[in-house]
Amino acid sequence: MNKVKVLVVEDEIIIADNICDTLTDLGYQAFEPAISYTEAISVIEEETPDIAILDIQLSGKKTGIDIAKKIKEEYDFPFIFLTSNTDAITLNEAKKVMPPAYLVKPFSKEELYTSIEIALYNYSNKTGKASNEGFIINDALFIKEKGAFIKLLFEDILFLRSAHVYAEIILKNGTIHVVRTSLNDILNKLNHKFIRVHRGYIINTIYLNQISHNCIKLDNYDIPIGKKFKENLINKLNLI
């Protein structure tokens, strides 16, 4: 399980530190803030953040808008613009890179959280994979817990099972996350390595060890397999 990783690009150190402290309080993972275009690109390449908060006005020739353009061209993850300047010229320049969200200084903790949520949602919506229950960014599922979005890597998910109106996501380390959604909805958000083997179970096939008449061995778990799902599973295996 990984927290959402946030890059803050702000050349006023006190403001940058305050934003990072607030992000930590909200349950996100905040990197050390970058103060320039060069530092921001370096952090992006080394740490691969999930979202960035970019101050438009930075010291130096290149601005937060230049960083946003670079993100859209080469890295493809969501970002939020941060500024104290709301004049028409600044707004028009910012609009050209179509930011998912826009924060004007000073802002509240709630406004920061809402902007991140909107940015993640809009990014997911762009890929056609957004929902009210979870968010997908590349190889991970985002679920909402305690006021923040928690990232679950697909490779860390062992299996999922239905629990009435909820779904349980069981990780390889034994951690269980509960979300209010159906298995059908979650299956549409997972990659091809996940397959439904029972009315109440979805498994990650990379951890499939054994198939018997009516159950599957998945690490240390015995998962039931339904008759109508078994044939579909067998057809997807490389049998000898």
Give the key terms.
single chain, 240 residues, 2 domains, 32% helix, 32% strand
Description:
The chain is α+β, with helices and mostly antiparallel strands and 240 residues long. It has two domains: 2-126, Response regulator (Rossmann fold, 3-Layer(aba) Sandwich), CATH 3.40.50; 150-235, OB fold (Dihydrolipoamide Acetyltransferase, E2P). Helix content is 32%, strand content 32%. The protein contains seven helices and 17 strands. The protein has helices spanning 13-25, 37-47, 64-75, 88-95, 109-126, 183-187, 227-235; strands at residues 2-3, 5-9, 29-30, 51-55, 79-83, 101-104, 134-136, 140-145, 148-153, 157-163, 166-171, 176-179, 194-198, 201-204, 208-211, 215-218, 221-224. The strands form four sheets. The protein has a five-stranded parallel sheet, sandwiched between helices. Strands 12-11-10-14-13 form a five-stranded antiparallel sheet. Strands 1-9-8-7 form a four-stranded antiparallel sheet, with helices on one face. A hairpin with a 2-residue loop joins strand 10 (157-163) and strand 11. Helix 2 (37-47) runs parallel beside helix 3 (64-75). The longest helix has 18 residues, at 109-126. The radius of gyration is 21 Å and the shape is elongated. The chain starts with a strand and ends in a 5-residue tail after the last helix. Residues 128-136 have low confidence and may be disordered.
N/C terminus separation = 36 Å
Q: How many strands, what sense, and barrel or not for the largest sheet?
A: 5 strands, parallel
Strand order of the largest sheet: 3-2-4-5-6
Rg over CA atoms, rounded to whole Å, is 21 Å
Helical percentage: 25-40%
Q: What structural class results from the helix and strand content?
A: alpha+beta
